[in-house]
């Protein structure tokens, strides 16, 4: 999608340090981290949100999570996966992404 910031990051048109990349996803640090560890898992193929996403990409991300949280060093103490969706959900970038937060005891509820 031409005007999508995450499509541009995926395409390398906006530079970013990719912590992980394969043919389906990239993982980058969030620009404004909300925790000591705060990354975004971004599917390469554009889709707006979790409702428009294919089952395949959701399952793919789920199956990659163990490797990603291990690489980040947060698998033992735990972490949070967040998919903000739509206006009330606080989604600011309309390209599906999974926040992974950890590195400290996170507060709840997050509002
Ligand atoms: P959301 O508000 O759930 O749509 O999440 C979008 C996230 O993308 C926010 O946490 C932003 O800090 C983050 N973000 C926006 N632009 C960039 C960028 N260029 N590189 C990394 N993270 C970004
Ligand atoms: Zn996009």
Give a brief rundown of this model.
With 111 residues, the protein is α+β, with helices and mostly antiparallel strands.
Task: Please characterize this protein's 3D structure.
With 111 residues, this protein is an alpha+beta fold. It has one domain (5-102): 2-Layer Sandwich (HIT family, subunit A), CATH 3.30.428.10. The protein is built from 2 helices and 5 strands; from the N terminus they run H-E-E-E-H-E-E. The protein has helices at 5-11, 55-72, and strands at residues 18-21, 25-29, 37-43, 79-82, 98-102. It has a 5-stranded antiparallel sheet with strand order 1-2-3-5-4, with helices on one face. Strand 2 (25-29) and strand 3 form a beta hairpin. It is globular, with a radius of gyration of 13 Å. 21% of the residues are buried. The model has no long low-confidence stretch (mean pLDDT 97). The structure holds adenosine monophosphate (AMP) and zinc ion (ZN). Zinc ion (ZN) binds next to helix 1.
């Amino acid at each position: 999608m031409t005007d999508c910031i995450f499509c541009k990051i995926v395409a390398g048109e906006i530079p970013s340090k990719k912590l992980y990349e394969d043919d389906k996803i990239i993982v980058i640090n969030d620009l404004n981290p909300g925790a000591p560890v705060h990354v975004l898992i971004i599917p390469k193929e554009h889709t707006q949100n979790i409702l428009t996403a294919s089952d395949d990409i959701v399952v793919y991300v789920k199956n990659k999570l163990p490797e990603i949280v291990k690489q980040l060093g947060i698998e033992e103490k735990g972490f949070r996966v967040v998919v903000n969706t739509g206006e009330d959900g606080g989604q600011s970038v309309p390209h599906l992404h999974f926040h992974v937060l950890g590195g400290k005891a996170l507060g709840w509820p997050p509002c």
